[in-house]
From TrEMBL:
PROSITE patterns linked to this entry: CSA_PPIASE_2
Subcellular location: Nucleus
Keywords: Nucleus
Name of the protein in question: PPIase cyclophilin-type domain-containing protein
Cellular component terms (Gene Ontology): catalytic step 2 spliceosome
């Protein structure tokens, strides 16, 4: 019987590359590397309840500067107390994200990611996040939403953003950022972390490319709602059996509702203050 788990070291490759890796059951997986995964990192793969392969954790490899260099980014991480203070500061803006599971309050902190925060608030104010499928929802991973049909007027309305400078906000549970396919590609697709990636990605997690700089965090009172969003698995491009964002873009929400009736949606968003 083939193993339901395996690991491999990431070879020398460009950030964001897609690796072709053969699993123990003979399936060839196409694995797009997250932007904060580097050559030498160890990726652990496992099968979910649906039998689909997915990344279960990653262990940071030791960089050229040795162990001391691998620990340097950790020293820059903001503490949970500092992040909570940022979210309670006068600059923070509360956004209510309405979903089919209930409202999720997000504290947007402009100083964490000035361009990212400005864009997210623009999208909220202009009604972008209405009838938006939460098409990527991974247990112990993340939520992702923001793709619209290519013929939707919202599709081509917004340009890509330049990257913001990292300011020490870690990829902790509840942290919100834009998804990106590489430098300067943030646009309108949002990720919410369902786990603390400092543990899963090792001490060097922060300080790698700033393409997905956090701009906010789910409020403590909304964590339970965030975790109640239906987890349909990873996208096919990452070896999962969840919704395909390419088909969502070409076919629209009809594809989601016919093929994934349990998929949750963002139904609207607004500023609370």
């Amino acid at each position: 019987m083939a193993s339901a788990a395996f690991s491999f070291a990431v070879p020398q490759c460009a950030p964001g590359s897609t690796l072709s890796v053969k699993a123990p059951d003979g399936v060839t997986l196409k694995i797009p590397l997250p932007e904060n995964i580097l050559p030498g990192d160890e990726l652990h793969m496992g099968k979910g309840a649906d039998g689909a392969w997915g990344i279960t954790k990653a262990i940071r490899g030791v960089p050229a500067g040795g162990a001391a260099a691998s620990q340097a980014p950790q020293a820059q991480w903001r503490s949970a107390e500092a992040m909570a203070a940022d979210c309670a500061s006068p600059e923070a803006v509360t956004v209510r994200l309405d979903t089919t599971k209930g409202p999720i309050l997000i504290k947007v902190v402009p100083s964490w990611s000035p361009l990212g925060a400005e864009r997210f608030l623009q999208l909220v104010d202009e009604g972008y996040y209405g009838d938006i499928a939460i098409y990527r929802a991974i247990q112990g991973g993340l939520l992702q939403f923001g793709v619209v049909k290519d013929t939707d007027p919202r599709s081509g309305r917004y340009s890509r953003l330049q990257d913001d400078r990292l300011v020490g906000v870690p990829y902790a549970e509840g942290v919100v950022s834009f998804a990106a396919a590489g430098p300067g590609t943030r646009k309108s697709t949002v990720c919410i972390m369902k786990a603390d990636f400092r543990t899963q990605l090792g001490k060097g997690a922060l300080g790698t490319p700033s393409t997905e700089t956090p701009f906010g965090m789910v409020a403590p009172e909304s964590m339970a709602t965030m975790h109640s969003i239906a987890c349909l698995g990873d996208i096919p491009q990452c070896g999962g059996k969840g919704p395909d964002p390419g088909k969502l873009e070409s076919l629209g929400n009809e594809y989601i509702r016919s093929q994934f009736p349990n998929c949750d949606f963002v139904t609207g968003a607004c500023r609370m203050r």
